[in-house]
Amino acid sequence: MDQDISATQYTLGDLLYLMERLRDPDTGCSWDVQQTFATIVPSTLEEAYEVADAIERGDFNHLGEELGDLLFQVIFYAQLGREKGYFDFNGLVSQLTAKLIGRHPHVFPDGQLRAVANATNKDDVDVKAQWESLKTKEREKKGDAGVFADVPLNLPSVSRAQKLQKRAANVGFDFESPNTAMMKVREELQEVEHELQQMQGGRASEALGEELGDLLFSVVNVCRLSKFDAESLLRATNRKFEHRFGNMERQLLTDGVSVETATLTQMEAAWQAVKALDES
Q1: Share of the chain above pLDDT 90, in %
Q2: 168 in helix, strand or coil?
Q3: In this protein, which residues make up the domain named NTP pyrophosphohydrolase MazG-like (predicted)?
Q4: What is the average pLDDT across 14-36?
Q5: Which residue in 36, 70, 92, 270 could disulfide with 47, CB within 3.0 to 4.6 Å?
Q6: CA quadruple 104, 110, 116, 118: dihedral sign
């Protein structure tokens, strides 16, 4: 008789034990035994994106499951670390707790987790400034030189652009407002247009590619200064495009033509029709 797993309430300790069993070289799972820190990184990134996707789609029925999958990645790394003698899960939790206590002196003024909270709280601007100052000191203590020293190279490019810009802004290298940043966008757009005019035989130059990159970077600046997360905005636009394109395909089929055989004029007409429905 199959066990009803929904009736069993497992604990964090059970999950850690399960991971240890999976990694047992004699009785564990052959796939899990073969994994290394490097080989599970793609899965970690995928699980993080699935969490973000569930939140952005408002799919809270499945968010818990996605968060569990992401937690399992941490458990996996902790088991690998324990096997190598680098760290273990309890050590990770202790280090994280201590770090967060230190980064929130306005909540834990005496550095003690269970101490009574301070009645006077700082506003959001002060908290962010304090947070960045403490993180800077932590980087210096680790020996990380430079403002961008610990910005991960494998962040999505849009996210990394925004993080680099925020770091630069923390030391005063920034535009005064979204409007002044927009002036830079217009400047970069003119340079892109100039390079497009220089194209010969439809072949793009390296200079055009560089100017397009500068334009993208400048648009991220406008997003950041307007208090938007550029990566989230682009993901939302991707979803909107995907949704409308799917509706356009269905509209064309209703008209008796497939998207593969439709002319550009037919596709544009169907696109405008579904766009009008979305905006009505």
Answers
A1: 71
A2: helix
A3: 35-108, 177-244
A4: 97
A5: 70
A6: negative
In one letter, which amino acid is 236? A
For the chain, what's the residue count? 280
Q: How many CB atoms lie within 10 A of CB 226?
A: 14
Burial class from Cβ neighbours inside 10 Å (0-12, 13-18, 19+) for residue 16 reads middle
Residue 248 near residue 272, CB atoms below 8 Å: no
Amino acid letter, residue 88:
D
* Whole-number percent of the chain with pLDDT over 70: 91
- pLDDT for the residue numbered 4: 54
Residue in this structure with the two tokens 């002060």, named with its chain if needed: 126
Distance CA 228, CA 214 (A): 19
Structure tokens at 253: 């089929």
Q: Which residues contact 177 (CB under 8 A, 6 or more apart)?
A: 225
Q: Is 203 helix (H, G, I), strand (E, B) or coil?
A: strand
Write down the pTM of the prediction: 0.70
- Residues 98, 190: Cα–Cα separation, whole Å: 50
Q: How far apart are CA 244 and CA 241, in angstroms?
A: 5
pLDDT tens digits along 168-223:
998 899 999 999 999 999 999 999 999 999 887 777 789 999 999 999 999 999 99
Q: Pseudo-torsion of CA 214, 217, 222, 225, nearest 10°?
A: -130
